[in-house]
Each structure stands twice: as structure tokens, then as C-alpha cells.
Amino acid sequence: MTILQNISLKPYNTFGLDATAQFFVEIQSVEELVEVLQSPDFQSIEKLFLGGGSNMLLTQDFDGLVIKINIKGIHKNFEDNTHIHIQAGAGEVWHELVMYCVEHQYAGMENLSLIPGTVGAAPMQNIGAYGVEIKDIFEELQALNLETLAIETFKLADCHFGYRESVFKHEFKGKYVITSVTFKLMKEPVFKVGYGDIQKTLEEMGVVELSIKAVSDAVISIRKSKLPDPAEIGNSGSFFKNPEIPKTQYDTLKAQFENIPSYPINESTVKVPAGWLIEQAGWKGFRDGQIGVHARQALVLVNYGGGTGEQIKALSQKVQASVFEKFGIKLSVEVNFI
């Protein structure tokens, strides 16, 4: 374990933004994490815990210690006739875990294929796609209490999962570091193919008999067709959340914008696709120098190379203001501003 100084974070964030960390360390175990946190050299400085760097926007240099969580390991810790529990280290790449489960015929994760980031970050914002969220397959997680330096276990009810929300984004923010997550998967799949273009893509792929791999392949195909590869164009995937609004507000908007799509949450609330709102406000494909809004998916803000976090932040605020002016809906961001 080596503490580095004045390290560029460009390779460690999917936007490809060139911010500098005063100190930087990669840790491979809980023991190393505790050792770093107990070091007298770093007791009083600010710390940033980094996973895959896919859910953050670096708007400035970081005057503190960046701790890259590389805790690895995937193993089975429970099995019965219907379910299997898979525990994964927080530093495991999310998509690689999904592929491991698809390969072993463990069902439940396949709709979450190709989401960028690491396992430890997944429950923080209850990642989700195509009708499945982390909370649907979550068993428990372990996290290091930064005050006591003791490992604590959080069950489903403890995490207060919501739409892109968890207790770790609010009252426990900055108080814990997730070290591992355990998922409850099924031996017999229950396929969810009614969301988005999954069914259409399966038909185009010529799939006659559904399988875990077929659904995963369809999701991967859809994501590749709509979302830019961060290795080619800097981005963090979906920059904005899909807003949930009162049905009464939606009905009013429907009278004015008859093509506005929605997904019912309950009798009184509907979810409206943020990408549709942004596109209707005229931002899809917008470019300003080295930053912009992606041409195929308006939810995605991009860094074409050489852009800054401050520029992307300013663009996001302009998009928010424009959507609010046109629809009266305030968009919330998914990424964390650093």
C-alpha cells in the first residue's frame, strides 16, 4: 500500500476530467482501509472514497486523500432450493459481477447488465434499469463505520431504498464506507422483459426461448445503441433522474403536450422520462466546445475531451432551468458534484 502525491484523477473518473488529488491510495482489504484511516498523517484532512468513478463530476482539484476501494472477491455464502446468495467485494466491477451471475445461471441481475461502476457504489443510489433495482435483489451489505472503524451489517430495511436513493446518500453520507454487498438471486428466473425495448430487441435477435443470457444480451445491445462508451466519450451515463410528479400535474401537462410519456408509480404519482423532457426542451445533440448533450440520449452529458467539470455543471444547470421553464418540472441530478 503506497500513498501517492499530486495524482491526476483523469484515469479514475468516467468523464475523463483532469483533476488532481493531493494524496491518493488504492486499498485491497478492510484491514488496509482501517490502517489508512488510523494513520496520524491523514486524520485531519478531507477524504474522498472512490469506486469506479462513474457517478461523480469533479469540478475542482481535491485537496485531501482519495481512497480508491479495490476490495475484490465473489463467493457464495448461502444456498437453498430456490435462492442463492452471492457476496461481492465493493471493488468488484459491477458488470463483471453481473456476467459472473449470468454465466452461473443465477437469475435477477440480468436486467442490470452493462451499468458502469463498482459493487460498492450500487446500493448507495439503488441503481436500476429496465424494471429492476438493487433493492429487488438485495440481501445485505457490510460497511465500515468511519467513527468506530467497526464493520456493521445493513439489511434491506436498514437501507431505506428509494428511486436512486438510500440511507447512504442522506443521514449516513460520509459516515460509512461499503466494503461488500450480498445479493439474493434465484435459481429459477422470473423474466422482466416488458420495460423499454427488451421484448423488441429479443425478437430482433431471433430469441424464441427466453434465458438469463438472452435478456442480458438484449439489455447490453440496447445500452450500447443508446449510451456512449466512456472509453470513447467521457460521460457518467444518466446525468439526471427521471422525475416523479403528481398525477394531477401530469394530467395538466398531458393536455398541453399530448405525446408526453409516463410510467405509473401509484394512483397519485407518475414517472416522466427526463430524456424526453430534455429533448423537447431542445437540448439533444447540443454541443458547446468540448462538452455537450449526447446526440442519441439526452439524459447523458458528455465531455468530448478537454472539457471541465465546472463547464459540465453549468450546462446541467442550464438544462434544468430550461426544462423547468417549459414543463414546471425540476430535474434532479444522479451524479455527485465533487
TrEMBL record:
Alphabetized Pfam families for the sequence: FAD_binding_4, MurB_C
Subcellular location: Cytoplasm
Identification of the protein by name: UDP-N-acetylenolpyruvoylglucosamine reductase
InterPro entries assigned: FAD-bd_PCMH, FAD-bd_PCMH-like_sf, FAD-bd_PCMH_sub1, FAD-bd_PCMH_sub2, MurB, MurB_C, MurB_C_sf, Oxid_FAD_bind_N
UniProt-annotated catalytic positions: R164, S238 (proton donor), E334
Keyword Ribonucleoprotein attached: no
Function, as annotated: Cell wall formation.
Organism: Arcicella aurantiaca
Keyword Flavoprotein: yes
Keywords, sorted A to Z: Cell cycle, Cell division, Cell shape, Cell wall biogenesis/degradation, Cytoplasm, FAD, Flavoprotein, NADP, Oxidoreductase, Peptidoglycan synthesis
